[in-house]
Amino acid sequence: MTPQHARAQRLRESRIAAGYRTGRDAALAFGWNLNTYASNENGNAPFSYSRAKAYAEAFGVRHEWLYEGESPTGSDVAEPRRDARFVPVIGKVGADPEGAVLFATGQGTGDLVPLPPGGTERAVALQVVGHSMPGLADNGGLIYFEDQRTPPTPDMLGQVVVVETDTDEVLVKRLLRGSRSKLYDLESVNGPTRRDCKLRWAAHITAIIPPHQARKILRPV
User: pTM for the full model?
Assistant: First the structure.
């Protein structure tokens, strides 16, 4: 990993630890340019030392660690890092009153769960609430995915995936082709299909944990 991408990874970790589900949420909260922040966090554009200070102050971390990856010289206090064996539960996934629309809340629960088999540092989880996904995930279960924020890929078609729409909704849906390029139909596990949606990103579900096991592995923080 290059220094630029390592710095971007630390920025992402800081944002998640501070309780902001997406880079967009953080940028809006602090009045940052959305495109600039996104480019800084995904590693496409480097950020300066002065910008690191602003990000560090916002997310409650040391700017020396954020920029250089280490604590200030002479400090005996290391920058807190998330245990690599655990990943954050970034929200709850459930149904609206009609049981038609699956959604994720905009704020994390504060809990951690073990890294799933094959998971990377980008792994995150959603906790299932309600009974809108029979046969897929039950109330109290966990849905893991890799939070890579990349456009849908052909191998996702026909699969149940996690997506974000251009209307800021995070959904668990079966991904289908729309009526034209870059539009997608989103089929609910239990509800009507949404037609011709524009998506910001899509991610494969990497693991589903049943409720009885989820209760054993949730780690409040």
Answer: 0.61
